[in-house]
Design goal:
Double Stranded RNA Binding Domain, 3 helices, elongated
């Protein structure tokens, strides 16, 4: 009885101790990151910069990693934007005046990897990652932001799952 009480107390106390991982589940030496401009195989030039900016911001805010030049970064994020499809019909609605509006969807497909430059080891990788976003007619930018947010969340989740 006494041992189980002592064991319970030790477990409870150890739960209060901070984790020893920097940047979520990343190795402790990974404190800086460089987001390399993705190769863009699509006809949408704006997606390359929007994806890079979103990755930099969320890696900083959610994982505590600082931006660095590629030559000085502990880790790099790189990839290829394989596909960007827009105007995929999702649904239509009409009002009393017979005006029709359409919900559209877009999809972005990327190959992406997070590499530890110190060890040379790939920390997380996903080929053919597909994210979508929905938008109102003529609101493609809003759908693109949703899809990019989903890609960034997958990268963050993947980085955090490394432990």
């Amino acid at each position: 009885m006494r041992r189980s009480g002592l064991l319970s107390l030790l477990l409870a106390l150890s739960a209060c101790l901070p984790y020893g991982f920097a940047g979520g589940g990343l190795p402790s030496h990974v404190r800086t990151v460089a987001v390399i401009p993705f190769e863009n195989l699509t006809a949408a030039p704006e997606i390359q910069q929007e994806l890079a900016d979103a990755l930099r911001k969320q890696l900083r805010e959610r994982l505590g990693l600082r931006d660095a030049a590629e030559s000085r970064a502990n880790a790099i994020v790189r990839g290829t934007i394989q596909r960007y499809e827009t105007d995929i019909p999702v649904g239509y609605s009409a009002t009393n005046q017979n005006q029709t509006t359409a919900r559209r969807q877009l999809q972005i497909a990327v190959d992406i990897e997070l590499v530890d430059q110190v060890s040379g080891k790939t920390l997380w990788q996903r080929k053919g990652l597909i994210a979508d976003g929905q938008y109102e007619e003529r609101g493609e930018a809003a759908g693109r932001r949703q899809a990019i947010e989903r890609i960034v969340n997958d990268v963050i989740d993947g980085a955090q799952s490394q432990w």
